[in-house]
Amino acid sequence: MKQFRWREALFTLTDVSKALKEFNPKLEITCCVHATKNTYYVTELRGYDNWDMVASCPYFDVFSTTIIDWSLPEAFFRDITERTVALAKKYGKESERWLMGYNNRPADFAQIDKVVDMYEELGTDRLATWTYRGGYGTVVAAKDPIELWDNIGRNYNRVMGKGK
C-alpha cells in the first residue's frame, strides 16, 4: 500500500493537471510540497516528497513549499527558500513561499518583516498565507490573530509597493 501510494500520488496529480491544461491551457497550477531538509525524517510516501520530481512536472506552473513554523531558526527558512527558488528556476517555474498565518505567531512581529525581506532577497516570485485573518474565530486561530493578519498584510503591501 505504501509503495502504491508513493508511486500513484504524483502520477495522479500529473494526470489531473494535464487534463485541466488540455481543457483550459490558461489555468495556472501550483503544486506545494512539504518544507523539509530531506525526506529521511519526514515522509509520508506520498509520491511528492521528491522535490525534483514535482518541480520537473511540465503541467505545474508554480513550485511551492509549505508553511514553516515561526519558532524554527532563520537558517531553516533560508535553506528551504534557497532550494525552492533554485528548483523553480531550474524547471522554468515560478517559486512560492508561505507565511504562517494561523496557530502560532512569531514572538516578535518584526520576524515577519525579516522573513519577507529574505524571501524577496532570495528571489521568491510569490508569497502566500494560510489562513484568512489569522484563523480568527476558529480552533486554529493564532494568539492575536488580527494583529498577525495585519502584520502579514502590511508586508504584502510593502513588497507589492516595490513593483514586485
What would you say this structure looks like, in words?
- By secondary structure, this protein is an alpha/beta fold.
- It has one domain: Alpha-Beta Barrel (TIM Barrel), CATH 3.20.20.80.
- 44% of the residues lie in helices and 12% in strands.
- A four-stranded parallel beta sheet has the order 1-2-3-4.
- Helix 4 (110-121) runs parallel beside helix 5.
- The protein starts with a helix and ends with a helix.
Using brief descriptors, characterize the structure shown.
single chain, alpha/beta, 4-stranded parallel sheet, 5 helices, 44% helix
How would a textbook summarize the main sheet? 4 strands, parallel
**Computed CA radius of gyration, to the nearest angstrom:** 17 Å
Helix percentage range: 40-55%
User: Total number of β-strand segments?
Assistant: 4
In spatial order, strands of the major sheet run: 1-2-3-4
Name the CATH class: Alpha Beta
**Terminal Cα span:** 44 Å
Mean pLDDT: 90
Number of domains: 1
What structural class should be given to the helix and strand makeup?
alpha/beta
Name the overall outline: globular
> And the CATH topology?
TIM Barrel
Secondary structure tally, helices? 5
Q: Which spans have pLDDT < 50 for at least 5 consecutive residues?
A: none
